[in-house]
Structure formats: C-alpha cells, structure tokens
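User: quick one, sequence for these tokens?
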C-alpha cells in the first residue's frame, strides 16, 4: 500500500469515526448531517458579515463565492459572503490551507446541539478563538432567531395537494425545569409537487386535539385554505379536527401505523397473515370503493377473535384507504406519515446528543428550521418527479373538489 492509499484509508476511517458519533452506519440521515453543517456555516458567515458591515459603513456586501471545506464528515460545499473592498473574511472559516480535524467538526456540531443558547454559544466561540464581543454574539444569535420567526409567520399558498402532519414528542427545558412537549410539524406538498415544511408549533404537554386546532387555525390564517388530502396518525380527535379545518379534504390515516397496530393487537401468526392481506388489497384493488369493500371483508374474518380492535379499524376503513382515490403513481406519497417522520428523525439524533432534551423551545424549532433549509436546497429543490408527472391529474382533482364546490354554493 503506497502513501496515498494509506492516507485515503486513514482519512476514511476518521470520517467514519466522527459520523458514527452522530449517526449509525445504516442511518439514512448520514448525508443530511453534512448538509446541516453546510447550512449552519452559511448562516453563521452571513451573520458575521452583518456584524462587520455594521462596523464598516463604507463597505458593502458583494455576493458570495463557493468553497469546499474538507472536514472529517466529508467535503462541505459552502457559500462564503464577500464585501466590495475584499477586507472581510469570516472568522469561523478556517485558513484556506489549514487542515481541519475532528475538533473543528465537533465544535460546529456543538453549535447545532447547543441550539444557540447564549452561554453555550459564547463557550463554543471562545473555543474557536473567534474575535466576537458579547454584543456581536447576541447579534448573530438574534439573526438566527429572526430567520425562524419570519419562517413561522410567512404567507402560505392558498391551496396544497397534501399535508403530512405529525406530533414529535420530546423533553424541553422551560426556565429551570425540563418538561414534556410536543412539536407539531406540518409538511406540505403543493399543487406542483414541491415539498416544504409549512409550520412548526411547540406546546408543552401531550399531543391533543385542541393544540391541533390551533395549528390548523394558524395555517388557515396564513393563507392555506384548500387542501386535497391530509395524512396523519390515528390520534384521538384528529379526524374531527381535520374535518373542521378542511371539510372538503380527504383524510388518510397512516397505513404503516395501522400495520404496526395490527402486530400490537394480534398474535404474531394472525398479524402476519392480516398485514399480507392488507398489502395485497392495496395492489389488487382497482379503486377506493373496491378497496374499502375488501378491507371490511378481511376484518369480518377476524372480528370474533379480536372484536374491539377489529371493530375500531373497520369503522375507519375509508380513512385508511383514502389514498386509493388518487392515481396509482401518487399513492406511495400519501398513504403514510413517513415523510414527516424522517424529518423528525434527524432532530431526534440532535436531542440524544444534547443530553436527552432541548435547552428551549427556540432551540428545538431552530434545529427543525435548519433541517428544512437543508432539504429545500437538496432533496426538495426540484419537487418529487413522480408527483410532478401527475400535475394535470392533481389540478383536475383540485378543480373538481374546490372550483365546482364554489360554483355550486
């Protein structure tokens, strides 16, 4: 093995070691960790330039230049802000030819994990030997807070193809106490197939219908008034809440959660047979009505053995199979809440690495906001191809649902 091969092997081992601190080898969020750090650096450098320009009124911002920063978690692709004079250089950026080791990556991760709490931020920046006064640190922190508030208050589109909603349960520090909290995350897919997080809302206490109504009220207030389908878990009261907020929308209860509940309430043998029948039902049914009929027939076969559970799911057949009303190409995107749960999974990694709880509601929501920014720059940038192919179908369904309703009313 020559020197270059030895170097590459050692470098790859270092990358694996650092990544394994935050994600397992099989974790699909490993690429997202690099994107999270890229986005964090971009925001931080932009805030640094704001601090610099406040001190140097004769200088002005002058766009950005791209740079690759080699770190133990891979090459970070960042956009470095410039000024007209060229006298500004972000202090958080290592020297161009300086080797970046795992300590630098750990410090960046500490910014994410600490969530910009003032004392933790000061400590981290001091460790990086960055020349900021406490007022300047506060300015950088406020910039990030303002970005979050603008995101939470922004106007939403009038209509959407789908809302995929979920309650993320965690512990959050409130003053001196760590309390149970629920963060209500709303992932939207617009009529052109693009995904975005439409809202994040954190309330202390367990998930409940009243807080979901507050979430829907805010979405409607910010402009979102017409939705084709809402996808959620089967939380008590959620069916009524969705019906009140969006009376013309279809409501899909997560099919994956249904199959999990089957395994929970039936014997292993029965659960396996029932879930295989559910999978076949989805494939073999030609439309919604046929699927509902087959679902109820399947339930009848198990009613005597599991009366309470079977009765409960049979009564909700139309909600578990609402996705069958849509073209086959769209069904895989709207039968489960997995899309929004995958967003929450990266935040869960940060919670675990930050000691099991978030330092504040602000910390929690900033981390979700950063994750949203990463996804918008990467996976969500151009929309979902299979959904975009069905734009005409979606438009027709939307017009039939809402335009005709308006004409008839």
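Assistant:
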């Amino acid at each position: 093995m020559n020197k270059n091969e030895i170097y590459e092997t050692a470098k790859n081992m270092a990358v694996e070691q650092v990544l394994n601190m935050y994600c397992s080898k099989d974790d699909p969020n490993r690429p997202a960790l690099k994107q999270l750090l890229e986005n964090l650096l971009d925001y931080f450098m932009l805030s640094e330039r704001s601090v610099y320009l406040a001190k140097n009124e004769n200088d002005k911002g002058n766009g950005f230049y791209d740079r690759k920063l080699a770190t133990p978690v891979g090459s970070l692709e960042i956009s470095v802000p410039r000024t007209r004079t060229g006298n500004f250089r972000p202090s958080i950026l290592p020297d161009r030819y300086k080797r970046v080791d795992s300590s630098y990556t750990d410090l960046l991760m500490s910014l994410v994990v600490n969530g910009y709490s003032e004392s933790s931020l000061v400590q981290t920046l001091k460790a990086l030997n960055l020349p900021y006064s406490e007022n300047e640190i506060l300015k950088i922190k406020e910039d990030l807070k303002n970005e979050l508030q603008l995101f939470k208050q922004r106007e939403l589109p009038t209509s959407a193809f789908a809302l995929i909603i979920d309650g993320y349960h965690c512990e959050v520090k409130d003053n001196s106490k760590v309390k149970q909290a629920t963060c209500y995350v709303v992932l939207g897919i617009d009529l052109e197939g693009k995904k975005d997080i439409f809202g994040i809302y954190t309330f202390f206490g367990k998930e409940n219908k009243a807080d979901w109504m507050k979430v829907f009220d805010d979405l409607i207030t910010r402009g979102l008034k017409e939705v084709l389908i809402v996808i959620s878990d089967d939380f008590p009261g959620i069916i009524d809440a969705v019906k009140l907020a969006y009376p013309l929308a279809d409501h899909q209860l997560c099919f994956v959660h249904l199959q999990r509940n089957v395994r929970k309430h039936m014997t292993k043998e029965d659960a396996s047979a029932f879930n295989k029948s559910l999978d076949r039902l989805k494939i073999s049914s030609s439309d919604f009505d046929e699927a509902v009929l087959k679902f109820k027939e399947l339930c009848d076969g198990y009613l005597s053995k599991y009366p309470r559970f079977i009765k409960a799911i049979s009564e909700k057949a139309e909600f578990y199979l609402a996705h069958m009303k849509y073209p086959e190409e769209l069904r895989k995107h709207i039968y489960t809440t997995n899309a929004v749960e995958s967003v929450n999974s990266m935040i869960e990694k940060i919670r675990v690495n930050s000691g099991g709880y978030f330092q504040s509601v602000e910390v929690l929501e900033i981390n979700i906001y950063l994750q949203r920014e990463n996804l918008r720059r990467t996976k969500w940038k151009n929309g979902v191809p299979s959904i975009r192919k069905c734009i005409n179908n979606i438009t027709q369904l939307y017009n039939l649902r809402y335009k005709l309703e308006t004409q008839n009313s």
